[in-house]
Amino acid sequence: MGLNIIKYINKLGIVSVLVLLLLPKLTTAQLPKVDTVSITLARAEQLFLNNNLQILAEKYNVDATRALIIQARLYPNPNINLEQGAYNSETGKWFQTDAAHGEEAAQLSQLIVLSRKIKKQVRIAETNYKLAEDNLADLLVTLKLALRSTFFNIYYLRQTATVYDEEINALKKVVAAYKEVEGKGYVSESEVVQIQAQLYSLQSEYQTLIDNINDQQSELRLLLKAAPGIYYTPAVNPEIVNADPLAYSLRTLLDSAYANRTDLRIAQDNFLLGKQTYSYQKALAVPDLTVGAGYDKLGSYIKDFNSVNLGLDIPIFNRNQGNIKNARILIDYNNTQLQLTQNTLEEQVSRGLQKAIDADKLYKGIDPSFAAHFDKLASAMLDNYMKRNVNLLTFLTFYDSYKQNIVQLNTILYNKVYALENLNFLTDTDFFNK
User: Fold this and answer.
1) What are the residues facing 294 on neighbouring strands?
2) DSSP-derived pairing of the beta strands 79-84 and 104-112
3) Positive or negative: CA dihedral 23, 24, 29, 35
4) According to the model, what pLDDT value does residue 377 have?
5) Distance between CA 256 and CA 414 in Å, rounded?
6) Cβ-Cβ contacts under 8 Å for 227 (sequence gap 6 or more)
7) Which of 75, 85, 147, 364 has the most neighbouring CB atoms within 10 Å?
């Protein structure tokens, strides 16, 4: 039996076992110095609002869009055209300017924009500015969910990591104790190998868990624009998990979503922009008027000729038909998108509430003393095994069950908190986990 287990371990690869044993030392030697920082959710959100580069970039975009309102209000500039005679074939001279032979002319013109085109341009620019603001708000809401879910995920993953750490340390103590009596006949070789195999398995799972935590830490640092050496330990009030998703009715949640959801405001903005664009395109079919005044010194039927002129395109071929039709179709498109957004909103809020209720039921089905009871049993089981009051199979089975149950417990707790955070996101209101 013992030789078979040893052969099995050898098949797994002695190199893999050595890597598992040496990994903590190698990791410690290669990683930069870590600065552990305890942080509350309120502090994390403040740093997020002040430092997040995506938000800062989007704010610049909002400012740039606002500048286009100024541009839309501007009228066309007047045009002046000056003319000077180059060569006089009668006198054979260039660029004559004398009163008798020098030809000079000037013309001043101004485009008069008709059909309230400028006012309509301003309205379109204002709606685009509102769209930019709503896109910024939508980004804030999306990143806020990412921030809060990452924050709570790190917290509960660390709780799970603590259990792994305790179990690994317990098994290390067993292995160390067995090493001291190795070869004296107190413990079979196969039993030692099984304990070590369980230890290596736990260390491998623990490393995967730590990698997940470090990935979440990386995401949190990016959101907060923190240095790579910062390691955050979330400070969380465990009571947040007791929040009741039924504290607010579905109607209240829907009303809040209709009032605050940024994707709904964006859909409404696009619908309004479509109507404004249609009105503007129809206005473009109306030709603009050009008025001007001119002076010609010698080139007309009389000397010092003065004139006024009017100019107007004749809309025979191009009446902007294609753009008008395109804008009209886009109104229907944006109206359909608005209805889709409204239907999606209602379905998402309703489903989000149901998920929160389901997560709450699962959480409430857990015995409050479950974790503490298991902790005591784990300590007692270790003592009993060391005293040989329980056999190896019972010991390993219990510890595996202990680990799995704690992992599931923390997953249930996180899922409950995330379900409430998702309701906050879907209604764009901080109903829970304030």
Assistant:
1) 107, 307
2) antiparallel
3) positive
4) 74
5) 25
6) 35, 221
7) 147
Give the tens place of pLDDT for each residue, 99-111.
677 788 999 999 9
Average pLDDT for the chain = 87
**SS3 of residue 430 by DSSP:** coil
The neighbouring-strand residues paired with 112 are 289
Residues paired with 312 in a beta bridge: 289
CA 163 vs. chain centroid, Å, equals 32
State how far the Cα of 207 lies from the Cα of 203, in Å rounded to an integer: 6
Helix spans in 291-391 (H): 321-364, 370-386
- Domain ranges (residues) in the chain: 32-75+113-285+320-427, 79-112+287-316
Q: What angle do CA 265, 269, 270 make, to 5 degrees?
A: 120
Q: What is the dihedral of CA 268, 273, 276, 281, to 10 degrees?
A: -140
Contact 287, 315 (CB under 8 A): yes
> Among the ranges 4-18, 28-42, 273-287, 355-369, which has the highest mean pLDDT value?
273-287
For range 278-282, the mean pLDDT:
97
CB distance 193 to 5 below 8 Å: yes
C-alpha radius of gyration, the chain, whole number: 38
Q: Residue written as tokens 């179990």?
A: 167
Q: In whole angstroms, what is the distance from residue 281 CA to residue 285 CA? A: 7
Three-point CA angle 191, 197, 202, nearest 5°? 130
Cβ(409)–Cβ(371) below 8 Å: yes
Cβ atoms of 104 and 297 closer than 8 Å: yes
Which CATH number applies to 32-75+113-285+320-427?
Answer: 1.20.1600.10
Helix (H, G, I), strand (E, B) or coil at 86: coil
Distances in Å between the Cα of 356 and the Cα atoms of 153, 241, 346, 352, 360 are 17, 11, 15, 6, 6
Residue 22 has pLDDT above 50, yes or no: no
Token pair in block for residue 376: 């005591």
Cα–Cα distance, 72 to 62 (Å, whole number): 16
Picking from 281, 274, 276, the residue whose alpha carbon sits closest to that of residue 335 is 274
pLDDT tens sequence across 297-355? 888 888 888 999 999 999 999 999 999 999 999 999 999 999 999 999 999 999 999 99
User: Of all residues in the chain, what percent carry a pLDDT higher than 90?
Assistant: 65
- Tell me if 416 sits within 8 A of 364, measured CB to CB: no
